[in-house]
Prior knowledge:
Layout: E1 9-13, H1 17-29, E2 33-37, H2 40-50, E3 54-58, H3 66-76, E4 83-87, H4 92-100, E5 105-108, H5 113-152, H6 162-179, E6 183-190, H7 193-200, H8 202-219, E7 225-231, E8 234-239, H9 244-261, E9 276-283, H10 291-307, E10 313-316, H11 318-322
Parallel strand pairs: 1-2, 1-3, 3-4, 4-5, 9-10
Antiparallel strand pairs: 6-8, 6-9, 7-8
Amino acid sequence: MIEKGSSMRILLVDDVQLDRMQLAIRLKQLGHIVEAVGSGREALDVYSDFDPELVLLDISMPDMDGFEVANEVRSRFPEWVPIIFLSGHEEPAMIAKAIDAGGDDYLIKPVNKVVLNSKLIAMQRIAHMRRELKQSTAKLEELNILLQQQANEDGLTKLYNRRYMDTKLEESIAWHGRRNIPMTVILLDVDFFKPYNDNYGHIQGDSCLQGLASTLKQLFVRAGEYVGRYGGEEFVLILSETGSEAASLQAMRIKEALHEMNYAHDHSTVSDRVTVSQGVLSFIPGGDESIASIYDKVDQALYQAKQSGRNTFIQRNILELAR
C-alpha cells in the first residue's frame, strides 16, 4: 500500500497564474515536488532536467495548447509518464480528444480537492511501480554488462579471451581492408615457461602470467588496440592503423617493459628474468584473409623468433611469408 504522503515529481503546466499558484501550493502541501510553468514551451524545456513522474497539463493555452504539448512529450520522451489534462470543458468529445492526444486522465477545473487527492493516490501507485521497474531494469543492465564482460574475458589474466580476439581480428581485417590501411598482429610466447612452472610452482606461474598481462594492458590502451590471451603462455595483440615501422617500435616496447618488470627466471638460458619471443605480422588486408591464415602466418614468425634464440621478435608481412 502506498502512503498518501509519498511524494512525486509533478510538472504543472497552466498559463493562468492564479490557477497555477493555487494548485502548486495544494500539491506541495500534500508533500509533492512541483515544477510549475506557464506555457507548453517552458514545459518542454524543463522536462528532461526535472524528469517528472506526473504531468498536470492545462488544455487551453496560447502558443501551444495542451494537446500539442502532450503530442510533443510522447514523441520526444519515449519513457511513459502519466499525463492528466486540466480543463473547464466537460464535453465527452473533449475528453476523448485528450486521451487520443496521449493523455491518461482528465480533471475538470476548478479541480475538486477530493477528486484530485484520489487521482494523486492512484498516480503515486504508478510512480512507485515505475521506480521499482527502473531499479530492476538498472540491475538487469548491470548484470548483462557483467555477464558480457565475463563471456569476453580470460579468467586468469582478465585480458580478452581467444573467442573475443577472434571476433576483433575479423572486424579489424574487414575495416582496414576497406580503407587500405595497415594493421599489425603480434603473437608472443613466454620463453621457457615450462621450466619456470616446474621450478617455481604453478601458483607463481599464474602470477607471472597475470603480471605479464597487466604490463601489456598498460602498454596498449589506445582505441583500436586489443590485448588477449591466445592460450597457455601465449598472448595476442591487434594493433589498428599500425604499419611495419610502428610495429617494430611496439615490439621493442614490449621487450623493454618485460625487462623492467624484472620477474626472476633462473632456469632460462637466455636471461636471468622472464622474457618473451614475438612474431610480428604487419599487413594491409586484401579482403580475402581468414583469421586462421593470419594466425598461421604470425605463428610462423613467432616460430622463427624462437629458432633465432628467443627473447627477440621477428617481423614479417604476408608477402614475405608466402615466398
